[in-house]
Amino acid sequence: MASRRLALNLAQGLRGRAGGLSVPVRRGLATPHSPALKTQTTTLKNGLTVATQYSPYAQTSTVGMWIDAGSRAETDETNGTAHFLEHLAFKGTSKRTQQQLELEIENMGAHLNAYTSRENTVYFARALNEDVPQCVDILQDILQNSKLEESAIERERDVILRESEEVEKQLEEVVFDHLHATAYQHQPLGRTILGPRENIRDITRTELTNYIKNNYTADRMVLVGAGGVPHEQLVEMADKYFAGLPSKSPESAAYLLSKKKADFIGSDVRIRDDTIPTANIAIAVEGVSWNDPDYFTALVTQAIVGNYDKALGNAPHQGSKLSGIVHKNDLATSYMSFSTSYSDTGLWGIYMVTDNLANIDDLVHFSLREWTRLCSSVTPAEVERAKAQLKASILLSLDGTSAVAEDIGRQIVNTGRRMSPGEIERVIDAITEKDVMEFGNKKIWDQDIAISAVGSIEGLFDYARIRADMSRNF
């Protein structure tokens, strides 16, 4: 609506200036036309993929390595290793001390960072175009030549233990960690990224080097460039620096277990703590994987449920039917619908926070009633609203070279190819209310659920009562 109003105002303004006549808008000489930006990929002899989106007028670039290995590639005994390695990556290599590494990055004015998720580990750098070769050299150095000194391991052990304490204070993180743990019980996907505290205390250099040897292999890595770095130039650098990477991961027990399809288990976990003034509840059904044909339908369906935050000025008018019910009856402080995908499964659900502790059952009931409504009576108007929000969210998230690199790396590591924004837009445009209802009947109606609840949750009904709400006809 806002974009249409903007276009209408612009058109009216032009007609006003031209005495009522429509005039063409001409592009000035200072705005060169560039063709649609494309993602180029090349696979080296050892299996390493190089992927770039070259923008000829960009002054900066982001380069990074996306690795198909995270906490899911660990065992119960080594859980936390991937995250531990991420911390040690910047603590010195056989070529550079920690101080030299930090000075080199600082002198370029570049940014070097990393993160670990359940299925991926990422190391990336942002810099001016002329400094890209130096950044790739640094990336290859920390990936292949990290010293992993005992003194650094001990220092980072304390840092990670403090980080673990901080994470435990963030209720949303705690709820989602428990949601994974109960939905994927005794499976790699159910483990936390940081690992249990006893593991953090016990991880040794041997486990760290074994993780690198078993997982940092060319067939599971994608070197990504976005911005002003030409594809051929990055391929040359990849050939120079990464040709020596092992081409294939050894098929260890941990590797085979990480590639086994995760089984979703209907179950719940509750941590009652009446000193916490709110109830924090996540409920999920089994969602979709990255490659699932219903991936975008799941996102549209999630957008129909929508989000709500009582603190926002537009809280009474946030669009979705559920937000209207929640606001009118003061059932929640906030809620967030989500669709989280992994290589072979996913979680589709809702996360709710409420201080109205006497009406927790009403909040859960109306949320699940909205879910079951999606299976039979979705209107074209709410589907169009959800599609518009989803497209805007995706396109707005691609603002900047780092965001583009993230999109390229995530898609290629998880699906093997990158869908362009235009292609994604066309797929979303084609989704109808019939597709949403088919998705609802397949994934939501009368399906088992996983529940994670923390805080003042005495008013949360038992699992059987909540599970029965998954097949209501009203």
From TrEMBL:
<dbReference type="InterPro" id="IPR007863">
    <property type="entry name" value="Peptidase_M16_C"/>
</dbReference>
<keyword id="KW-0479">Metal-binding</keyword>
<comment type="similarity">
    <text>Belongs to the peptidase M16 family.</text>
</comment>
<dbReference type="InterPro" id="IPR001431">
    <property type="entry name" value="Pept_M16_Zn_BS"/>
</dbReference>
<dbReference type="InterPro" id="IPR050361">
    <property type="entry name" value="MPP/UQCRC_Complex"/>
</dbReference>
<protein>
    <recommendedName>
        <fullName>mitochondrial processing peptidase</fullName>
        <ecNumber>3.4.24.64</ecNumber>
    </recommendedName>
</protein>
<keyword id="KW-0645">Protease</keyword>
<comment type="function">
    <text>Catalytic subunit of the essential mitochondrial processing protease (MPP), which cleaves the mitochondrial sequence off newly imported precursors proteins. Preferentially, cleaves after an arginine at position P2.</text>
</comment>
<dbReference type="GO" id="GO:0006627">
    <property type="term" value="P:protein processing involved in protein targeting to mitochondrion"/>
</dbReference>
<feature type="domain" description="Peptidase M16 C-terminal">
    <location>
        <begin position="202"/>
        <end position="390"/>
    </location>
</feature>
<dbReference type="Pfam" id="PF00675">
    <property type="entry name" value="Peptidase_M16"/>
</dbReference>
<keyword id="KW-0496">Mitochondrion</keyword>
<dbReference type="Pfam" id="PF05193">
    <property type="entry name" value="Peptidase_M16_C"/>
</dbReference>
<keyword id="KW-0482">Metalloprotease</keyword>
<keyword id="KW-0809">Transit peptide</keyword>
<keyword id="KW-0378">Hydrolase</keyword>
<dbReference type="GO" id="GO:0005759">
    <property type="term" value="C:mitochondrial matrix"/>
</dbReference>
<dbReference type="InterPro" id="IPR011765">
    <property type="entry name" value="Pept_M16_N"/>
</dbReference>
<dbReference type="InterPro" id="IPR011249">
    <property type="entry name" value="Metalloenz_LuxS/M16"/>
</dbReference>
<keyword id="KW-0862">Zinc</keyword>
<dbReference type="GO" id="GO:0004222">
    <property type="term" value="F:metalloendopeptidase activity"/>
</dbReference>
<dbReference type="GO" id="GO:0046872">
    <property type="term" value="F:metal ion binding"/>
</dbReference>
<feature type="domain" description="Peptidase M16 N-terminal">
    <location>
        <begin position="50"/>
        <end position="197"/>
    </location>
</feature>
